[in-house]
Design goal:
six-stranded parallel β-sheet; two-stranded antiparallel sheet; globular
Length: about 375
């Protein structure tokens, strides 16, 4: 048997295309059952909700508004409020909204508090039970609508960013409507998109990857390259770009679930346990110095994969695929999100690297190398 046997996780039903949000109400009406909606405030204030509100409310028992990555205590509160009253969940929003809904859908079917089931700190395995969930992303980045994990964050009590994970936690239905990206701020579009790219890129370079996962990742990265410069345009090119990025994000979710991620997410996960930085921006800031590190890599498989990647994505020749990619990403970005930004303390960096890992990377990066990545991504203070 192949050492890198891969498993594919996906939705039972995926609806993709502009205007596909209009399929939501007929889906709910086809099987009437008590349904809870998780969403963000921006959705409730936007044109899509204004258009669907009357018909949607006929099928919704209640709402939960999510404004940040959910903590174990928040999930436990939702479970207490809704257990026994809800049989189905709809999530409309960014990654934090979708992860909160996924966590609730699973934990409402489990008897113990959420923290008991969390990776890294939990002492009890999750069970293969969850409520049916319809996931509708309004950003293109996390791919949470197709992943088997729900990210949970507590920056105050136990200082943890970890997942609840099981294949049955993949949302039953995903509705991917690129028009939901219209009007999003440039920073949201850019930082979510670079998160999608980082998922694809790290899965492509993963030690767990194989032909199957790498071809999926390459397909997603080609869609990303097409979309990255035009995400905020209001013309047909913008519509095509948002459609391509929605596909790239979904494929990022598929490939990360199958092949895993690398040192960038190994650092980002620990940083997210202590700082309320946007996850996509964190990944993007770390990606650029990582590409410099990669440019000097002597690891044979990394060098081969980067050469193949460049040939697939770009027509121009180069002596350094990693540096070419970094320059292209920065030159074509709709917003230089990696400039300025918040600072990290030296003590914070030490806390992060003591817990970070290079899991699934082809190279086992040292603490010193991870410290350099962080120092190049953020200004440091005493």
């Amino acid at each position: 048997m192949s050492e890198n046997l891969c498993e594919l996780y996906g939705n039972q039903q995926t609806l993709f295309g502009r205007g596909s949000l209009d399929k939501l109400v007929p889906l709910l009406a086809a099987r009437s059952q008590p349904t809870l909606l998780f969403c963000g405030q921006s959705f409730l204030q936007g044109p899509a909700y204004a258009r669907l509100k009357t018909a949607l409310n006929d099928h919704i028992l209640g709402y939960e508004i999510v404004s940040h990555e959910a903590s174990p205590a928040e999930i436990d509160g939702w479970v207490t409020r809704w257990r026994g009253h809800v049989d189905r969940v709809v999530a409309i929003g960014g990654g934090s909204v979708l992860d909160a809904a996924k966590a609730f859908s699973a934990m409402v079917q489990h008897p113990l508090p959420t923290a008991r089931y969390l990776e890294k700190v939990g002492d009890t395995p999750v069970q293969p039970v969850t409520l049916p969930l319809i996931a509708i992303p309004t950003t293109a980045g996390t791919g949470s609508e197709v992943t088997q994990n729900a990210v949970v964050t507590d920056q105050h009590e136990i200082k943890i960013k970890a997942s609840l994970r099981h294949p049955v936690f993949v949302p039953q239905v995903a509705i991917l409507d690129p028009d939901l990206l219209k009007g999003a701020p440039d920073r949201v579009l850019a930082t979510c998109a670079i998160d999608a790219f980082t998922h694809l890129f790290e899965a492509y370079l993963s030690s767990k990857g194989n032909l199957f996962t790498r071809q999926l990742a390459l397909t997603g990265m080609r869609q990303f390259i097409q979309a990255w410069p035009a995400l905020n345009r209001e013309d047909a090119a913008g519509d095509q770009a948002r459609e391509a990025m929605m596909m790239a994000s979904w494929l990022g979710g598929v490939t990360l679930s199958s092949a895993g991620l690398g040192v960038i997410h190994g650092i980002a996960g620990e940083l997210g346990a202590i700082k309320p930085f946007h996850h996509g921006e964190v990944c993007g800031r770390l990606l650029f110095p990582f590409l410099e590190l990669l440019a000097d890599s002597e690891q044979p498989q990394q060098r081969t994969l980067m050469a193949e990647l460049h040939a697939q994505l770009f027509s121009e020749p180069t002596d350094s695929p990693a540096r070419f990619l970094r320059q292209w990403l920065q030159q074509q970005a709709i917003l230089p999100f990696w400039q300025d930004g918040p600072a990290l303390s030296h003590a914070g960096v030490e806390w992060i690297v003591a817990r970070a890992n290079s899991k699934n990377s082809l190279v086992n990066y040292s603490r010193a190398e991870m410290q350099r990545l962080i120092a190049q991504a953020w200004p440091l203070t005493d």
